[in-house]
């Protein structure tokens, strides 16, 4: 077997630090690899770093005025989150039915997880985390092509950095022919957006129709519709 063919059987580890929540959704696109989020929804995100900044991503392409407004809004959201998650932790601790002698490290972790999960909906999509990725060469190629063809600068920038690091392990990684795939993804996404802008209204309904809401369908209509799903696994039918 040729050496370059053997290289394609390799697995590559990559760690992406300070990735926004939006970026993480792009990283696990297609579920092509194995992922580990090192600081997820069960971690407190109520502390500022040494520079006085909360854990959120600030797009570098913002103009000064927009950046100032953006930072003020993000700080306000994190201030609210910090207050809520602290009060939730106290409330869950005080109302716990676990006897005091049994309140060990596992109990504290459970309290923290419940408080963080309940408060996580207050966090903006710009909230950052660290994501570990382990992928085969083919999976990583597909992921990087997808990232490089994205419309968001953050996503494209991380895709380029991942490409540079992957080529340190496998120099011939992602040949120039992949540029065609990247261009295709980017142009297709833009074409679909153009069609959406042309044919799809920018709002759900006109002002005149704001009260005219119609329930189109509902599931389940009754309990009997649940029975096939409940019985399928345990029956021979």
Summarize the structure.
With 237 residues, this protein is mainly α. It is built from 8 helices and 3 strands, in the order αβαβααβαααα.
How would you explain this protein's 3D organization?
The protein has a 3-stranded antiparallel sheet. The model has no long low-confidence stretch (mean pLDDT 85). By secondary structure, it is mostly helical. It is globular. It is built from 8 helices and 3 strands. The protein has helices at residues 3-7, 21-27, 64-95, 105-119, 137-148, 153-169, 178-199, 227-232, and strands spanning 11-20, 34-37, 128-136. Helix content is 49%, strand content 10%.
Notable features of this structure?
3 strands, mainly alpha, 237 residues, three-stranded antiparallel sheet
Structural class: mainly alpha
Main sheet specs: 3 strands, antiparallel
Order of SSEs = HEHEHHEHHHH
User: Residue-averaged pLDDT, rounded?
Assistant: 85
The tally of beta strands, per DSSP, is: 3
Strand content: 5-15%
Give the % helix.
40-55%
Q: Strand order of the main beta sheet, please? A: 1-3-2
Q: Which term fits the overall shape?
A: globular
Oligomerization status of the protein chains: single chain
In whole angstroms, how far apart are the ends?
A: 48 Å
Radius of gyration (CA) equals: 24 Å
Low-confidence stretches: none
Number of helices: 8
